[in-house]
Amino acid sequence: MSTQKAAGSDQSLQWAYYARTAGSFEQWHDGQEHHVALRYIACLLRMLDAVTVLDVGAGTGRGVRYLESAGFQACGVEPVSELVREGARHYTSPAMSFVRAQGELLPFADGSFDAVSEFGMLHHVPEPNVVVKEMLRVARKAVFLSDSNRFGQGPMVARRAKLLLHKARLWGLANFVKTAGKQYVATERDGLIYSYSVFDSIPLVADWADRIVLVPTRQDESIGQKWRPPLISANHLLLCGLRDAI
Fold first, then answer.
1. Bigger pLDDT: 88 or 29?
2. Model-level pTM?
3. What does the angle CA 177 – CA 200 – CA 176 come to, to the nearest 5 degrees?
């Protein structure tokens, strides 16, 4: 089986999971770290005089609704129709708009939105930086990634081991062995999860942005001191790529 066919099969599994669990999506994906991220994003959008925002992998539209309530013109991109219908069933808003599309191929022209965001979707796709490139392409002023950080998960010894493997360019091989070649783990409450860290996307975002802002949105207090670098202390972060002037 080719790599492309394998990726397509995995994607079908992920979409089937979301279709099956759409009714429980918001209950199972409360994501307090994303609520923290949204508050920071709203403040930064006002500082940038941003008006339009695209949310990629919008699910049932929780991020879109928040941004609309904060006074922005928000649009969601979501490929799974069951999630869109579930959002519309509970939250009827004539202003809320969705486009059925995938993050890997956004149906918008370059620079179509002031800002583009995603909340916890990059660790559900096999090639997250393909999505990030598309987000950067259609953004004018800012890109926001609120997502996981593999280096801040697990016991401290595991965190350091992952860092060492990454620096030795061996993490891909280690993860391949760990997942028996699948590159993901399947969970009942979150579907397919790929190994991802927002730090994986910093080089891409930094090339596009004038400045980078990192906000730890969920830190693991079990490891002790909160002053430890977020690379190893925060299991979720908000990565903000900002342009000073357009």
1. 88
2. 0.88
3. 10
